[in-house]
Specification:
There is one protein chain. By secondary structure, the chain is mainly α. 41% of the residues lie in helices and 0% in strands. The longest helix has 10 residues. The radius of gyration is 15 Å and the shape is extended. 0% of the residues are buried. The model has no long low-confidence stretch (mean pLDDT 89).
Length: 69
C-alpha cells in the first residue's frame, strides 16, 4: 500500500546511473502520466505513439506485417 501511494503522489524521477535519451525519457513520462486524459494515446490513439520521436526509426507497416525481426 505504501508503494502504491508513493507512485500516486510522487513525481517521476530518472536516475543518472542509466543513460537514456531525451526521447526515451519523454515517452516513458507520457506512458506513466498520472492523469489518464494526458497519457500518450489518449488524444489521437495509436498515431500519438507512431509520431513520437522515440519511434521514428520504426516502420510500422513492416512491424504490422511481421517483417521486422
Amino acid at each position: 500500500d505504501k508503494m502504491y501511494e508513493y507512485i500516486k503522489l510522487s513525481d517521476l524521477k530518472f536516475t543518472t546511473k542509466v543513460e537514456m535519451s531525451d526521447d526515451a525519457k519523454d515517452i516513458i513520462s507520457k506512458f506513466l502520466c498520472k492523469d489518464p486524459t494526458q497519457r500518450v494515446g489518449s488524444k489521437s490513439g495509436l498515431n500519438e505513439f507512431k509520431n513520437h520521436p522515440f519511434f521514428k526509426s520504426i516502420n510500422f507497416e513492416s512491424l504490422l506485417q511481421k517483417g521486422i525481426q
